[in-house]
Each structure stands twice: as structure tokens, then as C-alpha cells.
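User: Okay, second chain of the day. Same drill as before: sequence in, C-alpha cells out.
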Amino acid sequence: MKLTLQALWNEGTERLTLSGIGEAELDAKYLLFEAFHTDMVHFLMHRNDEVKDEDSVKRAVADYRAMIEKRSERVPIQHITGSREFMGLEFSVNEHVLIPRQDTETLVEQVLKDYKGRNPVVLDLCTGSGCIGVSLSILGGFSDVTLADISLEALQVAEKNARELMQARWNPVRVTAERSEEKPWRLELSAGLADGTEKKAGVQKITLAESDLFSAFAGGRERRFDVIVSNPPYIPSSVIEELEPEVRDHEPRLALDGRSDGLYFYRLLAAECGRYLNPGGTVYFEIGYDQGQAVSGLLQEDGFRGVCVYQDAPGLDRVVRGTMVL
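Assistant: Same drill. C-alpha cells below.
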């Protein structure tokens, strides 16, 4: 039997189905397109053609089968391909960061809506891949965004995403880096025009900081922000073992575990954010679908006003917003 793209797709679908993958056909197709660098149009045109006996094609077949094998072991497809689209932007991901999810776009979209035409100073706590903070910088044009995380491995992923997306968005630009030799680790990326025109270089800035919540901004390093956003760990510890293997076994536990009731980090954030906000500053937290009332109550207890909850596309509670009136 001749080997065709259609036969490879069928082969991959069968393998993933036997492994219990819910969307086996879709995943097999996506990995096939990735391995052969093709799309649906070209697949439909050539799916029944026998694949060529060439080294490059043989490598693509081998790569595809290797990716199918990884997926059958419940490795997330985004870890296999190394990327995930978020807010129309392509973000690199690996085992050190949460895979950006569409639910989180609700938070970014709300900040962009609330601050349209404005230029707030933004802090993204527990930044992970940087998908929230970098998206706000790129899509909102916010010129001073700080990405903070306790994990150096996560910050390395966020740095890669910030560099690549800054270069893609403000092309032609030069992205310069100023790395602090002091601890905690800190890096400032600035994007400016490369042609030396009258426009000032470094007009767009993304700072990355190693920080256990606000630790990098305390003790003589105080900064104030107009907006603080965060997607903190919020899954109760007891629930983590019940998650799908793709999440439980392959995404960082540090970014998932919200301690006994899932609210541990919201308590800390509600208590501390006011110290680092400018008057009238606002916080936006992603939450679990059943945490809207609890997190709203924590913010109100710590002096936030105008607290409200926003739903995601399926209609589930997803974001809590509150404003600190000092």
C-alpha cells in the first residue's frame, strides 16, 4: 500500500484514539500539518498522492510519527510544537509555563477595553509565558509593562516571547537589553526605531523581574503601577490529581496549586496590591469558574471599590476587577 498524507493522518488518528485522546483526528491533523509544513488547502490537493522518496520527506514522516507517539503519551500538543496562539499572537511554551488558554483572553480584552487610548504602567504578576503582559504591550501599545515571576525558567520563556513579538510588532526596530547583575534577576527590553530618526529610541519597554509576588518591588525598590494583572495558581491542591494528564503531569505544579481552597494567592494579592498601585489603580485577576464571589469579597475587605466579575466566552466567571481608591 502506498504511503500518502491521508494514510498518515489515518495512522495518527488511530494511534491517538487507542491512547484515549478525545480529539484524536484533530490532533493528528494538526501534527501532520506541522511536520509537513502544509495547510488544509494543500493537504486536500495532495492527500492521495504517494509521498516522495526524498530525504526531506522521510524526515517529515519520521517527525510526524515521533510527534504522534509523544501525543499518545498525553504530552500536550503545544509542548510538542513548542507554541500556542493567544490574542492572535504566537507564544513559545514549554514545560516551565502554563499553556495560554482562551479563557485568559477575557482578562486581556477587558484591560484593553478599559484603557483604550490610555497608557497605564502595568505589572503582570505570575507572568509565566508572558502572554498577558506581552499582549497588553503589543496590542495596547502600553509603553511600560513589567513581567514578574518566581520561576527563572518561566522568565526565560517570557523573555523569548517579549523579544520576538517586540521585533515583529515594531519592525524595523532594535530591541536592546539591559540586564541587572544584582539579585533578584532583572532584565529590561527596550524597542526603538533602528533608523535613528527623531523618534526617541526605547519608547516601548518590557521589564522582566524575578519576584515572589511583590518581593522585587519592596525594601527600597518600591514601584507603583496603574494596573496590576495576575493569573495566579488557583486550583485547590486536592483537585490537581483529578486533572487531565496533559495538565497534571506536564504543566508546572507551581503555577497550578492554589493551596487548600485555591484562594491562597488571592488573599496575598488583595492584601498587598494597594501598596503598589497609584491612586485609582486597578487590579484584574483571572479566577476559577466558582471563585467569583470569594475573590470579590477578599478585594472588598481590603479596600477595593467597584469590584465586578466578568464572564468568559462560555459564560463562566473568569475575571475579577477592583479599583483601589487611596
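The chain has two domains: 5-73, 88-324.

User: Thanks, on to the next one.
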